[in-house]
Amino acid sequence: MLDFQAYLKDIYDEEVCSMFEERQASVNIMASLVRSTTLTDDDASFGESAKMSPTKSAPRGLSESDIYGNAFVYNFADHDTTAITLSWAIYLLAANPEVQEWIGEEIRAVWKPDEAAINEYREGFPKMKRCLAIMLEVLRLCNPLPGIMKSTNEKILDINIGVQTITIPAGVRVILHTCAIHTDPRYWGSSSLEWQSQRWIATASKSTSSWEGETLIDPPQGIYAPWSGGPRICLGKKFGQVEFVAVMATLFKDYRVEPIPRLSETLQSARARTLAAAKDNEIVLLLHMSKPESVSLEWVKESSK
Predict the structure, then answer these.
(1) pTM for the whole structure
(2) Residues 4-62: pLDDT tens digits?
(3) Measured over all CA atoms, what is the biggest interatomic distance in the chain, rounded to whole angstroms?
(4) Could you count the other beta carbons within 10 Å of the beta carbon of residue 11?
């Protein structure tokens, strides 16, 4: 961790010098964070970069500490949770080939055969609703952060729930059990414990194709909170969503994933075993599958569609 902190500081100092010397910005998150600041002459808490260029103005907006905090979230909190979510998604898709076909239809419709890649985020990402629905459903049942902690700190807080007012004393920590609210049958119906990505999609009655006209369902406030909510919602939410959808589109455009059956095991039985492995989880810092190594997967090239 100390090595990572030193690494961040080296990148920070380099980007600040680059900004002061009016060099072209690097294409990375640190450059975006540093260059999002405004310049003033009275910011004394600038760090080593101020010594390198004492005649220049120092940045104000995000402090140096703020930038380190944001970089940490993107590099550890967001990448780690997204990686776990992707792992779960691939195992669940391997167990559900019909869902692979469902997202494949969308990917191939958005990503035309004659295109090497979807270059424009604004063009491609909003159309990938089914791919995003995979992520939303994985996080509903397999959220790497099964509890979200909030604190009243030094203030007494009154919370109104229906006609009831609950007073939470100062200095109390409250942990929201997301697994409980994400599987409550009152909100998610009788299939609350089943992985059904289609639950996130609403289909227009007069769509020109099976995927056009579909919209993502926005659940009522309070029943879905994998990224927390309110003013302190996870700042990596959109970053993680785009990252997840991009990986889904790249993987499933031309391939499908299948479990490798054991000796004398049918493919259907292998899929059932894969689903069982996905449901077997434990917490080691984050929630993840207990024995993913118990199932071997393979990527199979799709025939032309």
Answers:
(1) 0.77
(2) 778 778 888 888 887 777 777 666 777 777 777 654 444 434 444 444 444 444 445 67
(3) 75
(4) 18
Burial environment of residue 222 by CB neighbours within 10 A (0 to 12, 13 to 18, 19 or more): exposed
Q: Name residue, tokens 């869902």.
A: 99
Could you give the CA distance from residue 277 to residue 168 in angstroms, rounded to a whole number? 40
CA distances from 248 to 17, 39, 154, 283 (A): 38, 40, 44, 25
CB burial of 43-62 (b: ≥16 within 10 Å; e: otherwise) equals: beebeebbeeeeebebbeeb
How far apart are alpha carbons 81 and 109 in whole angstroms?
Answer: 29
End-to-end CA distance of the chain: 48
Which residue is listed with tokens 């009522």?
220
Indicate the average pLDDT of the chain: 83
Amino acid type, 187: Y
Nearest to 213 by CA among 146, 134, 127, 283: 127
- CA-based torsion, 158, 161, 165, 166: positive or negative: negative
Q: Are strands 58-60 and 164-168 parallel, antiparallel or unpaired?
A: unpaired
Q: Closest Cα partner for 81 from 218, 197, 224, 244?
A: 244
Find tokens 């059904």 and name the residue. 196
- CA 13 to CA 191: how far, in whole Å? 52
Amino acid (1-letter code) at residue 299: W
| AA letter at 272 | A
Predicted confidence (pLDDT) per residue in 140-152, tens digit: 999 998 888 888 8
